[in-house]
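Long-time lurker. I teach an intro course on protein structure, and each term I like to show students one example going from raw sequence to a predicted 3D structure in token notation. This year I'd like something fresh instead of my usual example. Would anyone be willing to generate the tokens for the chain below so I can use it in lecture? Attribution to the forum is fine with me.
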Amino acid sequence: MKITIERGALLKSLNHVQSVVERRNTIPILSNVLIKAEDGQLSLTATDLDIEVVEATDTDVAQAGATTAPAHTLYDIVRKLPEGAQVELATQDEGRLQLTAGRSRFALQALPQEDFPTMTAGSLPHRFELPAEHMRRLIDKTRFAISTEETRYYLNGIYLHAVEDGKAPSLRAVATDGHRLAQVDHDLPDGASGMPGVIVPRKTVLELQKLLEGDTGNVSIGVSETKIRFEFGGVVLTSKLIDGTFPDYGRVIPADNDKMMEVDGKSFAEAVDRVSTISTEKSRAVKLNLEEGRLTLSVTNPDSGSATEEISVSYSASPIEIGFNARYLLDITGQLDGEQAVFAFADSGSPTLVKDTEDAMAIYVLMPMRV
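-- Reply from a regular --
Happy to contribute to a lecture. Here you go:
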């Protein structure tokens, strides 16, 4: 194998694939990236046996072939090369990959490409397309609520499914960790009708978010009961799905919260951030005291003191006092596009509904804390 490629193009592709590779691997081949050159294209593949990312780039192929090389080492070398450098990759007889750029030469230990595991997606019966920016929106607005608790593994991802009952059919993304829940809808794309409800793992979600950055085309999505595949802009990401049952999230979304508060999202978030400076890292509890036209935020910490701040709001129901985790409040207000945020309360012990005035297809639920 012998190819020549511009440093920027190689770095971009390596950056996309190497982040899948775990830093510590018991199986040596999984630390490597598969490099294939044929028909004027360089294809890079990386996997951790759960996710596989393949990226193809146009390049000058002098001699077709394939090999594997340590992903992180190769990425670090290319990252440190001068901008605009022409990089030559060539395989040597003794099982090494030689990288030449200007006066720099590197010989990397390669492993045979035959040992590299391939991930078969099998048949993906449900296929549909979404614009990249809409796919990004589904991820960005829900990923903060993904659970990191390994014991409840079925919450360690985004639940993607088609909703076809009653109102307009939609493709819905839901994430929850038991404390907060995010639900975002998108008009149901052609081909998504009847797809199985799938839980896309957290690592896949984060990789997809990175890969979609700056992409303006369409994302082609294929789904089966066990795998999901995303294809866009020369990249193919295939992932296993979480084998579990996502809980009936509809039961925790309150339907009859009648105490409505409308507040300027930015000033509310800034006020929460200011008063929570006093709170302890563990609880980070902030108390909301609501009266007509006025909200008082307060935090009391026996070790470091107390803080209060008043902001004017639109509220005319009976007074209520309720506590929340400040971090969770900030996470949710950070997702709102509109200037105004609408909070719907029932009482101090029931879940609170948060809506965005600009985005009717996104809703958030937050469980209160005792303060």
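Some talking points for your students: The chain has six helices and 26 strands. The helical segments are 7-18, 71-80, 132-140, 202-212, 265-275, 326-333.
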